[in-house]
Amino acid sequence: MTFTFKKAAFGGLATIGAVALMAGCASAPEESGGDSGGEALDYLPCMVSDAGGFDDKSFNQLGAEGLDRAADELGVEAKKVESQAETDYASNLQSLVDQGCDTIVTVGFLLAPAALESATANPDLEYVSIDDTVDQDFNGETDAPNIKPIIFDTAQAAFLVGYLSAGVSETGSVGTYGGLNIPTVSIFMDGFAQGVDYYNEENGTDVKVLGWDREAQDGSFTGGFEANDTARQVAQGLIDQNIDILLPVGGPIYQSGAAAIRDSGRDIKLIGVDADVYETDPSVGDLLLTSILKGIDVGVEDAIVSAGNGEFDPSPFVGTLENEGVGVAPFHDFEDAVPADLSSKLDELKQMIIDGDITVESYLAQ
C-alpha cells in the first residue's frame, strides 16, 4: 500500500523546530531590566487559561511555563488570569486589556471566539492563540491580523503512539476518551487510531480501538475537562471492555483514568498528552507508557520574547514531527517493556512521516 504525505495547511510557515525556536528567537535587549542594571523594558505579557486551570499538568501549565520563561528573559513581570468556566473568557480578556497588557496569550480552542472579539476591539494589542487558528469564518485565514496562532499536528505523534500501543497490547484492545469532541482533542484520538490501523495492516493483527470511531468521527467524551466522577465512569467503561492501554485527551481528565486503572487492579498502561506527564505528575508515573508531546511552552516563549523585542510575527506556527513541535516522550519506567525492534520501528515510521511516505490524516494536514 502506498502512502503520501499531506502538507500542513500553512506549509512553509511550519519550518522552525521547537529546539530551534529557542535557539533562533531574537535576543532580549541588553538593557531590559532584570539583573542588567539598565532601564526596565516597558512591556506587559499576559495569559488567560481555559477552564482546566494552570495546574492541569498539561497544556495550560505548559503555556504558563513558556510565558514565565519569556518574562524572565525579557526582565518583565507577566500577568496570568485563570478561567473557572467558559463564561469567564470574555471578562478575563477584558480585565487584561484594562490592565494594560501588550500581548495576550489565550490557551485553548474554546477561547478562540472571545479572543477574536477582543483582538478586533483592540487592534493595537497583540494576541497569541494556542491550539486554534481563530478562523471563525472558515476561509483558511486567521480572522484578525493581530493574532498569532500556535497550533500542533499532534495526529503525527499520536500515530506513533497508536502503533506502539498496538505492539505492546496483550489483550488486543486499547482505549481512548476525550473531554469534548473538538478538533484539538479528536486529532489525538484519530491519529492514535490511525497508528493502530497501520500496525494491524503491517502485522496481520486485529487490535481494536475502543472509544473512537474514525468513520463517524465520534467516540467517548466526558463533556468537559475536569477530573470528576463522569470522567472516571467513562474510563471505567473502557476498562470493562478489556483494554490494557488508555489514552485520555483533555487536560486533567487523565487523573480520573489513572484512578480507574488503580481501582481495577489490572495491568493497564496510561498515555499522557501535551506534556511529559511522567515529569509533570510523578504520582501517575508508574502507569505511564509514554506521552504525546506538544511544544506549547517553547512556542509561547518564542512568541513572547519576539513580541517583547518589538518583533511580533502573526504568522502561524504549526508544530510537526519534522520541526519537533510535536513528539513522543521517553518510555521511562516501561523502557524494558518495549521491545528494541518496536522502538526502532517507531524511529523508522517517524522518518517516513517526515519524508512524506506515510499520510497521517488530520484537519491540519491539508
Automatic annotation (TrEMBL):
Organism: Agromyces tropicus
Signal peptide coordinates: 1-28
UniProt superkingdom: Bacteria
Coiled-coil stretches noted in the UniProt entry, renumbered to this chain: none
Family in the record: Belongs to the BMP lipoprotein family.
UniProt xrefs under PROSITE patterns: PROKAR_LIPOPROTEIN
Compartments it resides in: Cell membrane
Main subcellular localisation: membrane
Bilayer disposition of the protein: Lipid-anchor
CDD domains listed in its UniProt record: PBP1_PrnA-like
Keyword set, alphabetical order: Cell membrane, Lipoprotein, Membrane, Signal
Record domain ABC transporter substrate-binding protein PnrA-like: where: 47-350
Name recorded for this polypeptide: BMP family ABC transporter substrate-binding protein
InterPro entries: BMP_lipoprotein (IPR050957), Peripla_BP_I (IPR028082), PnrA-like (IPR003760)
SUPFAM superfamilies documented for this protein: Periplasmic binding protein-like I
